[in-house]
Structure formats: C-alpha cells, structure tokens
Specification:
It comes from Pedobacter jeongneungensis. The protein contains 5 helices and 45 strands. With 813 residues, the chain is mostly beta strands. It has a 22-stranded antiparallel beta barrel. A 6-stranded mixed beta sheet has the order 9-10-15-16-13-14, with no helix packed on it.
Length: 813
C-alpha cells in the first residue's frame, strides 16, 4: 500500500500541474443564456461556437439548469454560435468580436422556437434502430423493441450481435467467454453463476440499451478477455414529476410475469429518482447425458433428467442528485435485490455394460432452495472545471451480499428389475455466504490544448467472501455432519489501480495511448484443511486506439489492449456439489489469472456499414471442463488453466432500409478458435475450428405507432475447450402499438417461435466419451403494457459510473 500511496500522490501532483498548465494561457470569456418557448431556462441545449471568418467549429458546450453557457477562447477574432435541441428550430446568434485578452463578452439572452407543426415527422425520424454501430462499440436499443418485451436480461443478451448464452447461462462474445458484465458502467463483482442469476431476475422493462465493447480503453477495469457488456438501465429523463408503470405476463409450459414502477422528480436544484420491479419466473429444463466410463470392462451411463426452477425477485433503486451550482453536483445511490426460489430435479440413470443392457438404476431426486439479498450504496461527486469539458469525479462504494443455497438429495439404487439394492441415501447441504465489497475511485480529465486531452484516475477495491458448506447425511435416523464434504472457504482480495489516457486529435486522425497499472493481493483459505493460497502481483495493461478518416464516407480504426481475467469466486471455492453419485461439481483454489492480448482493425463505410477483424491470444486460459473421475466412475465439472487460446474473428454489420416501412440489420460473426493444453488430467488437448454466428433483425412499420419485428439467429457447430457444440438456431416475433397519445404501449412477443433452440454437445477430450442434450423452456409468449405519466419534455440528469463495476461481476445473485 505504501507503493500505491506513492503512485497516487505522484499522480495527484501531476494532475495539479496539468491543471495549472491548462489554465495559464490567457483566455477571453464568452457567455450567454438560452430560454425555451415559455421563456424558462432551457438546460442541456447543445451550443456550438464558430469562427465567423471561415465558419469552423471552435468548441461545443451544453447549457446548465439556469440556461447559461460559456466558452473560454484563446484567440482574438469574430465568433457566433448555433444552439440546437430536439423539438426546436436551430438558433443562430449575432456575431461578436473579441479585441483583447481576458475580455468578457455576453451574447445576451436568446429564445428557442418550437417546431410543433413537424412533431409527427420528427418523432418518426429520431426513432432509434434496434442495432447501432458506433466508433468504439455496438449498441442494442432494447426499450423500443417489441420482441424484447417481457424477457429477462439474460434472454435479451442472447439476441445481441456476437453474443451467445448457452443452456447453462454461460455468456460468450465473439465466440469467447470471459465477458465482463457491467450495470450502468458499474462492475458487478459477482461470480459468473451469480451474474447469470441477477440477469435472469432482471426484466427487459428495466433496460434502456446494451453496449458491446470488444476492446475497452485503459479507463475501464482490465478484467474481461473478450470485452465488456454494459447494460444501461432506464433513467427517467424528464423534469417535474413523472414515471411509468409496466406489467407483463408470459406463458410457455409455465407462467412467468413481472411488474414495475419507475418514478422521477426533478427541480432546478434536485433530482430524485427510484424504481421497483417484481418478477416471477418458472422455467423447465431437460438434460440427457450418455457417457462411457473407461475401464475393464467399460461402464455405460444413460442419464435422463428434468428440473423445474421457480424464482421470485424484488429489485429496487433509489437516489438523488443535488446540483450545488452549475459546476458541482453530489449524488447518493442505493440499490439492491431480494430474490428467492427453488429448483426441483429428477434424474434417472441406467447403468450397464452397454447402452442396450442395464444392470442397475440410480434415481436421484433433488430439491434446491436459494435466497440472495444484496444492498449497495454509492456516494458520488462531480465538478466541471471549465467550459472545455475538463472535470473531476469521485465515487465511494459499499456493497454487502448475503446468500444461502440449500440442497436435499435422495439417491435410490435399484437392480434392473426394480428391486432396491440398498437403503435410500439421504444427504443435504446448506451453504450460507457473505460477500463484502468496498471501493473508491477518482477520475479526472482535462483539455491540455485544443487537440490534446488527458484522462487519469485511481481506484482501489477490497473484497471479502466467506462461504460455509454445511454437509450432512442421514444415518441411523439422524442427520449427522459429513466431515468429508463440510468446509469453510474465506477469500480476501485487494486490487489497486491507476490509469492514464492521452488523446491527440489531428486533422483526419485521432490517437489515444493509455496505460493501466493494477496491483493484486489475494488470499484463499480452506479453513477445515488449512489450505492457504496467497498471491501478490503487479500488472501493466497498455492500450492503443487510432482512428483515420480517409474521406467523409470512409473511416479506418485500429485498437490494441492487454487484459486480465481473475478467477471468479465460485471457481476458486473448492467445495464439492453432487447431482448424484456419478455427477458432481468442484472448485479449484489453485487457478491462476489469464492474460489476453487483443488486436482489432475496423473499417466503416457511409457511417453505417462496418467490418472489423481481430486477433487475440490468451495465456493460461481459464476454461470450464468436464473430466472423468476414474476411481468413482464419475463425471465432474471444474475449471482449469489451459496453456493457451488463440482466436481470429471477423464481424460484419449491415443495416438495410429495404423500403420506407421495412428496416433490417444483419450481423455476421466468423471466428476461428483453438485451445491447447499439454496435460489436462493426464491427456493432451489440442483443438481448432472455424465457426460463425448470423443474426438478423427485421422491423416493419405497419402504420403510425404500430410496428412488427422478426428476428432470427443461427450458430454453426463450435469447438470450445473440451466441448464440441452442435448448431443452434431460433426465430422470434413481436408486435408493438402505441396508445393514448403515445403515453402507453402494448407489446406482444413470441420467443423461439418453432421451439428449436437447444444445446447438444459431445466431448473432444480423448480421455472421456459423452453426449449431452439440453433443452430449456425457450418458447414463451408474452404480453406487456406500459403507461407513462407526468411531464415528458426535459433532459436527463447526469449519468453515473460507480467504483464497484468489476468486482460484483464475479459474485452470485
């Protein structure tokens, strides 16, 4: 920490020096006030300052809640501005002249003129497409989509370009796992299983858009080898008092539904906001496994299983922003969830010398219960330092997570004729867990010159997890502690980081160079066996971004980044969880972090067609594997470090305006993946295969306010780690109608219209032979109604990004 303190102090002194450098040049000040059509201050109006001599752009600014704006300019001359805002005509000012340094000139007060007569045409023109390609990311606009209605966040992600969610809720992007999930720019600090559970309990009605960032800059946490998926939740953008009510009902084989309330109240000095969502979800899952346990002789297992998951979730968020003055804002944010559910499973396993002959049968009944609670607190501050956009922001975060997983197992062993071989074996587990997260971060950016911008910041996080596996078995009519499996695992982790980005804008070229330093200190302690694993290491993560404008309609881009993925908390937890005697899961406390080098080259045509090609190499890649337990003739799932993973990918995005009433977006992702491990449980693994994913979104405007959507996706055969995955495909459809003068909307949707989406996989690991067939309840019809009330005309408060973005993504929900 002394070393980190020295770095922080040095960075602080450097920032102070650069602030002083940025403010020493003599500058004149230009200001003005913009009013709306009611002669009230208009905030968040875009104001662009031009040189009168050649109409070149000098600077851009936004009006504050008082309607005022200001510019500092370094040269004498003549200037004018243009002010624009949606629903108003563009306003052009008179010309003013600066004749001396440090001169103050006031443009005075100007009033916007509404374009009410063109409101209908404007509303049609600004409707966001489902998929948008931006310079550094792909954006999927969820809120306007009929197909997304009533879906969970996990189901929405499955429809995103280049994203795959398998039947076990593992998320991949561009063919690779290791995606960092953020909510409103905040890392979740949860395990992959917990993130999946959180997204499964979040409704599409809570989501505004999803950002897919394949090569993040140094400002972001260095975790996530395949990039970042940022889920931006809805924030009421209006002034006064307003809100919305949403209700959804759906049915496949089982019922699911959700309801939510969103409220916002904004005055000149204060913005209060909050929302609450309740969801109930029932989902059926079927899994069949055929496998061969090698031996003398071989033993054949045919497992047929089904489960029914029932989940109820309560999510909420509340906060306020206080505008101290036009440059300083302080905010408080509290959010959390209270979720609980059950999952009942039945597995029948036929065992014999071949798949055609059965010697014995194992019938396993399992009842799993879960209860997850989380409360997170954030205190944030932001100060705008000058009209050039320089600002400093700070966040302090605390989050506490409480979970409790319980399981009851009944294992019944029978002969082939149905007679019982032995008494029924009863076991049960109870696993309370507590996760504490503390974090702080400071971000600073300053314009050193007209063309050079500096970003810098520091961040520290402290995470402590405590998992207590209490395993029992039923012996002599009493529950007794199972000393073979009961254990307690405590994990402590501290990550300290500092970063800097330097942006240089040339005439047709922009360059950004960045460096992030992270120091990691971790300790895993398996209490019962006194097994301690400690690590302390430094890492450096450089980034480079170059954008070249060849012409108005042709742009090239190049990016490079080095990234890290630390093992998730549940992957490090060495506990053993049994599905039955022959199928179980266990953690690996000896996992090492994996490191990735990403390269990407992109080309944009006509500002909408985009092709990107990329290459990445991952060392010590963390991979979920299925391996044999020859002593128990069992199959177990765990995580292991493979030697390396090399991938090549190409992504092509083509939006097409077929007619005035028909829009489509097509996305093709082609990639080659290879994995190597010289010694994986005594066997060599070496794979490599080219695969592709194709997704198309079709939007049809039937009439004003009435649209239809049709989406399709296809994933070709894929080799991933030790798995060979067969093709997967599905089609979704939806209708959307606005009502009551656009204050309400009614949406109908049917996901997986032909009930085709399923996961079939087999082993490509030479030490094991198996076939897995898994089918979730994916064909679901939904109806959703949303009603918006209150004032709907004023601009949003500031966006927030807290300091716990990366840690919560490694937790459970």
């Amino acid at each position: 920490m002394k070393i980190f303190y020295t770095i922080s102090l040095t960075l602080t002194l450097f920032l102070n020096a650069t602030m002083g450098f940025a403010q020493t040049n003599p500058k004149a000040n230009i200001s003005g006030i913009i009013l709306d059509e009611n002669k009230k201050p208009a905030d968040y109006v875009t104001v662009v300052l031009f040189k009168a001599a050649d109409s070149s752009i000098v600077k851009t600014a936004f009006t504050d809640p008082n309607g005022t704006f200001g510019f500092n300019v370094a040269s004498k001359g003549s200037y004018f501005y243009k002010a624009s805002n949606m629903g108003y005509k563009t306003l052009k000012s008179k010309i003013i002249v600066l004749t001396e340094d440090n001169q103050k000139v006031d443009f005075g007060t100007a009033q916007l003129v509404a374009t009410a007569q063109n409101l209908k045409e404007v509303s049609v023109a600004v409707t966001k497409p489902l998929i948008e390609r931006k310079m550094d990311k792909i954006v999927m606009n969820v809120s306007n989509s009929a197909i997304m209605t009533g879906s969970t966040a996990l189901e929405v992600l499955q429809k995103a370009p280049g994203v795959t969610v398998d039947q076990n809720d593992k998320i991949s992007m561009m063919g690779k796992q290791g995606v960092l999930i953020q909510l409103d720019g905040k890392q979740t600090y949860m395990s992959s299983a917990d993130v999946a559970n959180l997204l499964r309990n979040m409704q599409s009605s809570e989501i505004e858009s999803i950002e897919l960032i394949t090569n993040p800059s140094s400002k972001y946490d260095a975790s996530g080898n395949s990039g970042i998926i940022n889920i931006k939740t809805k924030k009421n953008k209006n002034g006064g008092t307003n809100g919305s009510l949403t209700g959804t009902a759906g049915y496949g084989k089982n019922f699911r539904g959700n309801a939510g309330l969103n409220l916002n109240h904004r005055t000149q000095k204060l913005n209060l906001f909050g929302n609450y969502n309740y969801g109930r979800n029932e989902r059926e899952n079927r899994i069949d496994i055929d496998r061969i346990s090698n031996g003398t002789p071989d033993t054949y297992f045919m497992q047929v299983g089904s489960s029914l998951r029932k989940q109820q979730n309560n999510n909420f968020k509340a906060g306020l922003d206080y505008f101290i003055d036009k440059k300083n804002t302080i905010g408080v944010l509290v959010n959390g969830y209270f979720n609980h559910g059950t999952e009942a499973s039945v597995n029948n396993t036929l065992i014999g010398p071949s798949f055609q002959k059965t010697d014995s049968i194992l019938i396993s009944n399992t009842l799993q219960t879960n209860k997850y609670n989380n409360l997170s607190y954030n205190l944030n501050y932001k100060s705008v330092l000058d009209t050039a956009g320089s600002e400093i922001s700070a966040d302090v975060d605390y989050s506490r997570y409480n979970g409790n997983d319980g399981s009851k197992y009944d294992n019944d062993y029978l002969f082939a004729n149905g007679e019982r071989m032995r008494p029924i074996m009863y076991t049960r587990n109870n696993t309370p867990s507590i996760i504490d997260i503390k974090a702080f971060k400071v971000d600073y950016n300053v314009s050193l010159t007209k063309t050079i911008k500096l970003e810098a910041g520091v961040k520290s996080s402290w995470v402590k997890t405590n998992n207590d596996l209490q395993a029992e078995e039923f012996v002599n009519n009493n529950w007794q502690n199972d000393v073979r499996r009961s254990n307690q695992f405590i994990y402590d982790e501290n990550v300290n980081a500092a970063y800097t980005n330097l942006n240089k804008q040339l005439k047709n070229t922009s360059v950004q160079i960045g460096l992030r330093m992270e120091q990691t200190n971790s300790k895993g302690n398996l209490i019962t066996t006194n097994t301690v694993v400690e690590r302390s290491y430094w890492d450096f993560f450089p980034t480079l971004f170059v954008q070249q404008t060849l012409s108005k309609n042709n742009q090239l881009g190049f990016s490079y980044s080095r990234r890290i993925d630390r093992p998730s908390y549940d992957a490090l937890n060495p506990f053993v969880y049994y599905l039955d005697q022959y199928t179980y899961n266990k953690g690996n406390p000896f996992l090492n972090p994996q490191y990735t080098n990403n390269f990407e080259l992109s080309y944009t045509l006509l500002q909408k067609y985009m092709l990107s090609v990329g290459y990445s190499r991952v060392n010590d890649v963390i991979m979920e594997v299925l391996l044999p337990d020859t002593a128990q003739k069992a199959l177990y799932q765990t995580n292991a470090n493979l030697a390396k993973n090399i991938s090549y990918n190409a992504n092509l995005n083509i939006p097409v305006q077929v007619t005035k009433w028909w829009q489509m977006n097509n996305n093709l992702n082609v990639f080659y993946l290879s994995f190597q491990a010289p010694d994986l449980s005594g066997k060599e693994l070496k794979t490599g295969k080219t695969s592709f994913q194709f997704k198309t979104q079709q939007t049809f405007t039937i009439m004003s306010g009435f649209t239809a959507e049709l989406n399709g996706s296809y994933e070709s055969p894929l080799d991933y780690g030790t798995f060979a995955i067969r093709p997967r495909y599905s089609i979704d459809a939806g209708l959307s109608k606005t009502l009551f003068n656009k204050k309400a909307s009614l949406k109908l949707a049917l996901s997986d219209v032909f009930n085709t989406y399923k996961t079939n996989l087999s082993s490509i690991y030479s030490g094991l032979t198996y076939e897995v067939r898994q089918k979730n309840e994916s064909q679901v019809g939904r109806i959703s109604f949303t009603y918006r009330f209150g004032k709907n005309e004023i601009k949003p408060a500031r966006r927030r990004s807290t300091g716990t973005e990366s840690e919560q993504g490694r937790m459970k929900n």
